[in-house]
Amino acid sequence: MMCPMARSPGAELALLLLGGFQSMVDEVHGELASRGHEGVRASHEFALRAIDEGADTATELGRSLSVSKQAAAKVIVALERLGYVEREPDPTDARLKRLHVTARGHDMMAQGAALFTEVRNRWAAQIGAEQLDALEAHLTRLTRNRSARTKDLAAGLDEDLGNAV
Amino acid sequence: MMCPMARSPGAELALLLLGGFQSMVDEVHGELASRGHEGVRASHEFALRAIDEGADTATELGRSLSVSKQAAAKVIVALERLGYVEREPDPTDARLKRLHVTARGHDMMAQGAALFTEVRNRWAAQIGAEQLDALEAHLTRLTRNRSARTKDLAAGLDEDLGNAV
DNA sequence: CGTAGATTGACAACCAGGTTGTCGATCAGA
DNA sequence: TCTGATCGACAACCTGGTTGTCAATCTACG
Fold it and tell me: What separation in angstroms does the CA of B57 have from each of A122, B47, B91, B100, B105?
């Protein structure tokens, strides 16, 4: 009763993976908040990175996040409100509103990346760098098939990616 | 643009962990659906297990899931609708409605556990059993502190556990 | 040209899964 | 017996996603 989900090694592994993810994210967001970036969600970080890497319209962002353009639009207004992106009309295509990451946005991205990597380094120190590399290599291999599947669909929507716990 | 979230090894690790979890869950639920258990969510499996392990009232379930009793009540009606639990008034305490897992519920639990373990075995076959054991041991260690923290709060609510992705 | 079809971003409605607050019914202890 | 705690239900709300629809705009073809 005190130990959640024993009994199935498989389920336990799944929980462990989820727990690891949440552990990292909590850690990073806590530190991020105390460095002037409060209210940041993991999805904000990932969306901001996607924008910075070229997904500079709502529809494009939705595509690269494998999410509807409406959902992408919602995170854009959040990012805008937080001061991480700005939106301005495209001079050559009046339908588009071009996105660009602000200085504050870049600061958040840099700090987030550094914090994630810091957590990763702490893990590496605990279990050994080559062990952590091995762990990553394994996870990459183990999820490659599915990633490929999901990526192929591109704007795929019959995958229920939002069903995590 | 095609490769999501490069640039930060730490963020990549986090994504890898999340991807691993989702990969397992998707796999299991797909198979579960094709075996007569459609509409099952990960939360259903975990809640059902908690109920079976003794959390046989709504409030108790909420406690053992670290969630409000109202949220627990919602998953209970879902489980009831799916035929996995039944609810009947407690003869000795008229406030309580005692929960019990149905035969169908036990079947789902068994199949779910078996499928999770099957996925885990496939992973073990791919990366080696002792490597997988090592991976689990590492994740356990790496998340132990946080788990302990979270567990201590018990009905804690200042942790934003729902912030995954 | 001009028009038919795609595409873009906005809006509304909805759903799932959480939250809080409140409430009546019930139990339990002083 | 009364007072306080607990239980389950209900309502309202938030978040992050979905679909459907729409006017505006581009684009390619006749």
Answer: 41, 11, 13, 9, 16
